[in-house]
Design a protein that fits this description.
This protein is mainly β. The protein has one helix at 48-52, and strands spanning 2-10, 14-18, 21-32, 39-45, 59-71, 74-86. Strands 1, 2, 3, 4, 5 and 6 form a six-stranded antiparallel β-sheet that branches. Strand 5 (59-71) and strand 6 form a beta hairpin.
C-alpha cells in the first residue's frame, strides 16, 4: 500500500534492548492528500530511520504494511514504512511555516498500558 502526503510531525525516537538485541523506532505523522485529508501515524524501524531521513513539511510517498495484533483482548494496529519516495520539489518548510506545531494525543485513563510493544 501507499500513502501520499506531507510530513506533519516527527515524534521522538524510541529504543531499547530486546531478546534479539537493541532496537529503535521512530513514528511520524503524515497528512494525506485529497479533498478530506487524514492524519496517519507511521513507524520506521532500525536503519530505515537514517535511510529515509525525513523532515517535517516534506511531501512523500510512503510504502507501508499494515498489521493488527491482539494483546489481552485489545487490538493494536501498526502502520510500518518499508520504503519512502520523496516527491520532487519537496522542501522542508521555512521557519515561517504554516503547519500548526500543536499535536494532540488522546489517553484513556482506564487503559492498562502494560503492553510489551
Amino acid at each position: 500500500m501507499e500513502l501520499k502526503g506531507k510530513v506533519f510531525k516527527i515524534l521522538p525516537e524510541q529504543g531499547g534492548e530486546g531478546k534479539n538485541g537493541p532496537w529503535r523506532k521512530q513514528d511520524f505523522v503524515m497528512e494525506t492528500e485529497g479533498k478530506f485529508p487524514k492524519k496517519v501515524c507511521v513507524t520506521m524501524w532500525g536503519d530505515k530511520i537514517d535511510e529515509f531521513s525525513i523532515k517535517e513539511g516534506e511531501s512523500l510517498t510512503v510504502h507501508i504494511n499494515i498489521e493488527s495484533r491482539e494483546y489481552r483482548d485489545k487490538w493494536f494496529t501498526d502502520v510500518k514504512a518499508w520504503k519512502v519516495d520523496k516527491q520532487e520539489g519537496s522542501a522542508p518548510p521555512s521557519s515561517t511555516s504554516s503547519i500548526d506545531d500543536t499535536f494532540t494525543t488522546f489517553h484513556d485513563e482506564d487503559f492498562d498500558d502494560d503492553s510489551p510493544f
